[in-house]
From TrEMBL:
Ranges of biased composition (kind: Pro residues): 390-400
GO molecular function, one term: protein-macromolecule adaptor activity
One Pfam family linked to the record: Ndc1_Nup
Subcellular location: Nucleus membrane; Nucleus, Nuclear pore complex
Keyword entries, A-Z: Membrane, mRNA transport, Nuclear pore complex, Nucleus, Protein transport, Translocation, Transmembrane, Transmembrane helix, Transport
Region ranges (Disordered): 1-21, 385-415
GO cellular component terms listed in the entry, alphabetical order: nuclear membrane; nuclear pore transmembrane ring; spindle pole body
Domain of life of the source: Eukaryota
Transmembrane segments: 39-58, 70-89, 122-140, 160-182, 203-227
Location (main, coarse): nucleus
Record's protein name: Nucleoporin NDC1
Family: Belongs to the NDC1 family.
């Protein structure tokens, strides 16, 4: 008789790869914090101190006196604290990974203004600019007295008239802040930008400092010129109209009535050259400090980070980073993985062998890595097929039909009389026949209808007509009232839109021809869709996709000699099929884009129509930019597939591929 024994040992489950939030992301955050403190804060503070000491003088003192003055250094330090540090912190807190690329500038502005963070960012820029202005006015009493920057004018008759010079300075700083903010939106500086070919050691930022100063100097000059024009239009046109509004007039006239009088607007800048120079200089200092800080952020933050080698299990840490849901950490993880896959050193080879032969985790490291990479490529592949449009909403789950309980069998109930009906008399039968729907009654109804039709054609005086017609005529009025009552009230947004359209219509109708032409061109420029922007919408994560493709292809090529158990070979058909499908979609889209450009014909070149030639040149430039954006993924796919085909050669015949994939792969085999 056999006896069974129970074991006291329990099966120990295999651990899973830890999430990125516990292993990879804290290490990357520590490095980014170090870069923020050591590079961005330190260099921006040094630039701000030097720029203020060199170009801003509180009392027209010499450079040597400012270098030796502790108060000058204190003011420069406070200027960095209140004017530059908030900008850097705002950029850090509002940095996003999801780009809101729109095909037109108007769409870009609308997408940015729809975010809740936009108002906060603009508030930070405006507050920093005004704090810088307050600091400079407080630290320079001589300049404040020479420019007469008191709050009210010195007048006994009108003691509450506001000082126009101070208003000019304050609104100029707010204008500079708004212009720089709009420039950052158009440049998409609040979106994480990555370049997979970025050098590990960034170049010295001070080498490109002259170009930065020239660029920001031209931008400041153009912005200040536009501000002077807007300020003059406000004084000549807007303010007189506003002061004609009854309630607003009684509120503003005691403070700004003197602005509509005085010298001509065109000669005001010539009479206040010193104020114009100080305003332009303060704007240049403000924007130069901001631009330098933004450049530091763009230069140091996207640099590659290698952190996995600092842990006890570097492969586990790296694969954990690949599974992150944040695109910023995905960039850093795949960048490090690409370096590991392409490095030919013995240490990297040892790490790849350990990666391929891992059996400690369930699923193993290679399966986790492959699944995350292919899911990333599949998501962006679907985005490319939709041409950047959002994914359609998933259909609602089917509602289960309620279960019907069948009635138990029962004896049917008879609802008919069971007794024989009584015999009717002959007179009752005749009366029932007349009251029923018999042929006689039908004939009577037909005769009545014919008589009614003939009576309609007979002239009847209005006095004897029925009141039905009047009641019927009143029905449309009530229906119209109901339809008016059902219309929703006008919303504030639609009211603002109608007012804007009305103002623009009057401007176009009554404005000068040149201004109407400029407004039309500006509206067309804002609304015209850019081809390259549409391509960027279709491939929003093209740099990340290229990193994924380069990493996977390099690991597959290395597995031919370093994969001891054939773990990678099982996934080669899936990887090649994903690469070839993505490549086919990219090539199809690139062909669609190239067809959009039609070179100018000889007749058009002979006629020298500037409008047509300019439009075609713009299309050519946009098509070239779109092709460049698509080629980021296309070139990486072609290179990766070529490397795999060149490495495995005839060994690829052992794998089975779908017919479409096999035909596409055969073209690479024939080419190589």
């Amino acid at each position: 008789m056999s006896t069974s024994f129970t074991s006291s040992f329990s099966a120990r489950p295999s651990p899973t790869v830890p999430p990125a939030s516990q292993s990879f992301e804290p290490l990357v955050k520590a490095v980014l914090k170090h870069r923020l403190n050591r590079n961005i804060f330190a260099f921006s503070a040094a630039f701000s101190l030097g720029f203020h000491i060199l170009f801003w003088s509180s009392d027209d003192s010499s450079l040597s006196a400012r270098l030796l003055s502790p108060s000058a250094w204190l003011v420069a330090s406070l200027a960095w604290l209140v004017g530059v540090l908030p900008i850097i912190v705002s950029r850090k807190l509002n940095l996003t990974t999801h780009s809101t690329v729109a095909p037109s500038p108007r769409g870009t502005l609308a997408g940015a203004l729809s975010k809740s963070s936009t108002c906060r960012i603009l508030t930070v820029y405006t507050a920093s600019a005004l704090l810088l202005l307050s600091l400079h006015l407080y630290s320079a009493p001589a300049i404040r007295e020479s420019l007469n920057l008191s709050i009210f004018v010195k007048s006994r008759k009108h003691p509450y008239y506001l000082n126009g010079s101070l208003i000019f300075l304050v609104t100029a700083q707010a204008w500079f802040a708004l212009s720089f903010f709009l420039r950052n939106i158009m440049l998409e500086r609040f979106v994480f930008r990555w370049s997979r070919n970025a050098p590990s050691n960034p170049p010295n930022v001070f080498i490109n400092l002259p170009l930065l100063l020239i660029t920001i100097g031209l931008f400041t000059l153009v912005t200040f010129t536009a501000y002077n024009v807007a300020f003059g239009i406000t004084r000549v046109i807007v303010l007189p109209i506003v002061l004609r509004i009854p309630l607003v007039r009684s509120l503003l006239r005691p403070f700004v009535a003197h602005f509509i009088r005085g010298p001509w607007t065109l000669i005001l800048p010539l009479r206040h050259l010193r104020l114009e120079f100080r305003t332009l200089l303060l704007g240049l200092i403000t924007l130069a400090n901001w631009e330098f800080a933004e450049t530091l952020f763009n230069l140091y933050i996207p640099q590659p980070i290698d952190v996995s080698h600092t842990t006890a299990e570097p492969n586990v840490t790296l694969v954990s980073g690949v599974t992150s849901t944040d695109l910023v950490f995905l960039h850093f993880a795949y960048s490090e993985l690409r370096n590991l896959a392409t490095d030919s050193s013995p240490s990297s080879s040892t790490r790849r062998i350990a990666l391929f032969s891992d059996q400690k985790y369930n699923p193993n490291l290679w399966s986790t890595l492959t699944r995350a990479a292919l899911l990333r490529l599949g998501h962006d592949y679907q985005t490319l097929l939709r041409r950047g449009k959002p994914a359609p909403p998933s259909p609602p789950p089917p509602v289960a039909a309620p279960a019907t309980v069948s009635n138990p069998p029962s004896t049917p109930i008879l609802r008919q009389p069971i007794y024989k009906p009584l015999q009717q008399s002959p007179l009752s039968r005749v009366l029932n026949s007349l009251g029923s729907d018999s042929d006689l009654s039908k004939a009577t109804e037909e005769v009545a209808k014919e008589v009614e039709t003939l009576a309609k054609d007979v002239h009847v005086p209005e006095l004897f007509r029925s009141v039905t017609a009047s009641a019927t005529s009143a029905v449309p009025a009530s229906t119209a009232a109901i339809s008016v009552a059902q219309n929703p009230p006008t919303s504030p947004s639609s009211l603002i839109t109608s007012i804007k359209q009305g103002c623009c219509g009057h401007l176009v109708k009554y404005g000068p021809p040149r201004s109407r032409e400029i407004c039309t061109q500006l509206n067309e420029w804002l609304a015209r869709e850019r081809i390259h922007k549409r391509a960027e919408m279709s491939l929003p994560n093209r740099e990340l996709d290229a990193l994924v493709i380069e990493s996977l292809s390099a690991l597959v090529c290395a597995s031919l000699t370093e994969d001891r158990y054939g773990v990678v070979q099982r996934d080669i058909p899936r990887i090649l099929e994903a690469f070839l499908s993505f490549l086919q979609a990219a090539e199809d889209y690139q062909n669609e884009v190239r067809v959009l450009y039609v070179p100018p014909t000889p007749e058009e070149l002979t006629q020298a129509d500037s409008a047509v030639l300019h439009q075609k040149e713009s299309t050519r430039v946009e098509v070239a930019k779109a092709s460049e954006a698509i080629s980021v993924v296309g070139d990486a796919l072609k290179l990766g597939i070529s490397d795999i085909v060149r490495t495995f050669g005839d060994k690829l015949t052992a794998f089975k591929f779908p017919p479409k994939t096999a035909r596409k792969l055969q073209s690479f085999v024939d080419y190589i």
